[in-house]
Amino acid sequence: MSVSYDFSGKVALVTGAASGMGFSTAQAYAKAGASVMLSDVNQQALDAAVTEINQSGGKAAGFVCDVTKEEQVAALVAQTVEQFGGLDMAFNNAGIQVPAIDAADEQAEDFDRVNAINLRGVWASMKHELKYMRDQGHGSIVNCASIGGLVGLGKLASYHASKHGVVGLTKSAALEYATRGIRVNAVCPAAIDTPMVADMKEKGVLTDDIIEGIQPISRLGKGEEVAAAVLWLSSDAASFVLGVSLPVDGGATAR
């Protein structure tokens, strides 16, 4: 069954939008009628993603942004508002993985890097989105956490710490803005068929046996399945839903 939304006249912002879940969500927003600002650090991939959406009849633009640099995030939000006339929805998706390693052997540089992107990047994005949405009195923000924000897994302590942080940010901001017309939620994907997961499989961090052991559905998720959850949380259909960290995980957290 296909569910459709009408986001005509709305403006959406997606970070980490050049591939994977971010690109699938940007496509879905555009298909539903929204104008979409795509952001990524990879200029070439970003240009290709924007071109694909526009050639498919959507309305999209791109902005290169490193979410670890708050001034770049502020410029991204400002450019979105200037170019499209507002900001109604955001999916803060930019994130990375780090090599699997025993917690006693993990390097501080890896901890700092994964938290700078996955946690501080979401914090900066949400901060500047909220600044605009607070003044207009409405908006919906969806942060990309992970099942790694709900459970633990050996050899990925820093990654899981960053995603637990995203869940905490989401809950706190949702409570703060609950009566101000702004809803803040998160999605918590399991292993999704994205370039990052493909890289993890290539390096042996993830195997088919591990995926089948974690996800009762016994397959990788699809980017469009995460996008469907993001669009629902962004829509008026979820008007009474806030502060939720929604598993999109093939049953992984049901165990």
TrEMBL record:
Superkingdom of the organism of origin: Bacteria
Keywords of the record: Oxidoreductase
EC assignment: 1.1.1.47
Statement: the UniProt record of this protein carries the keyword Cell membrane: no
Enzyme class: oxidoreductase
InterPro entries assigned to the protein according to its UniProt record, in alphabetical order: NAD(P)-bd_dom_sf, SDR_fam
GO MF annotations, alphabetized: glucose 1-dehydrogenase [NAD(P)+] activity
Cross-referenced NCBIfam families: PRK07231.1
Family note: Belongs to the short-chain dehydrogenases/reductases (SDR) family.
PANTHER family named among the record's database cross-references: DEHYDROGENASES, SHORT CHAIN (PTHR24321), ESTRADIOL 17-BETA-DEHYDROGENASE 8-RELATED (PTHR24321:SF8)
Protein name in the entry: Glucose 1-dehydrogenase
Species: Vibrio olivae
